Amino acid sequence: MASPPTLPISKEQSSAASSGGQSQPTIATPAFRTFISRLSFSLRQGFSQRRPWSELVDRTSFARPDSLTEAASRIRKNLSYFRVNYITLIALVLALSLLSHPFSLLVLFCLLAAWMFLYLFRPSDQPLVLFGRTFSDRETLGVLVVSTIVVVFLTSVGSLLISALLVGLALVCAHGAFRVPEDLFLDDQEPANGGFLSFLGGAASSAAAAAGPVAARV
């Protein structure tokens, strides 16, 4: 007796059957590489403007301010001159706080990875399918926003970040108030009221330019 003919099965059907209706989210490699390269360039360019650390901790340049007005004036001038050093100091305080709390560091790392792989750098033409269910971009964004709010405001991670930022800002304000800025000078191309976060402006704009085509979905 002849055996029944075998029905042909295409590669697409076999791969779909083996995947079980689930797809793993992939990352848009070109956009991710562009984001990393632009961010790295902006950071290198910003850190090239930092002042010598020996100038920051020069003991002969410290004196107690005579009034709150003088302290505020010193802080404003020192922020304009040492802003990159101050940002580095605050980042160091944040890093030490997170390293002393590994669980919080792991939670933040997982949250950042979720934003990057599930939304920011996921190809816009590829839907997110998890556990056999397809999630739209609005649903994915909503879940990520809610998860971020829960992690930052309803767990110990938020209090850790806020306390570290407050400690860093307190150190910056204390140094700025007691550091006499008479021997400091600003470059002609650099305005005195450039702002404390102007260093981060270039990195933020470059990051937005790299991630914009992928993230603008809603």
Describe the structure.
The structure is a single chain. This protein is an all-alpha fold and 218 residues long. Helices cover 65% and strands 3% of the residues. The protein has eight helices and two strands. The chain has helices spanning 11-19, 29-47, 53-56, 68-99, 102-120, 137-153, 156-178, 198-215, and strands spanning 128-130, 133-135. The chain has a two-stranded antiparallel sheet with strand order 1-2. A hairpin with a 2-residue loop joins strand 1 and strand 2 (133-135). The protein starts with 10 loop residues before the first helix and ends with a helix. Residues 9-24 and 191-199 have low confidence and may be disordered.
Task: Give the biggest sheet.
Answer: 2 strands, antiparallel
Computed Rg? 25 Å
Written as H for each helix and E for each strand, in order along the chain, the element string is HHHHHEEHHH
The low-pLDDT segments are 9-24, 191-199
Amount of helix: 55-70%
Sheet/helix structural class: mainly alpha
Mean of all residue-level pLDDT scores? 74
Oligomer: single chain
| Count of distinct strands | 2
As laid out across the biggest beta sheet, the strand order is 1-2
**How would you sum up the global shape?**
elongated
Number of discrete helical segments = 8
How much β-strand is present in the residues? under 5%
Distance between the termini: 62 Å
Based on the model shown, name its key terms:
mainly alpha, 218 residues, elongated, two-stranded antiparallel ribbon, 8 helices
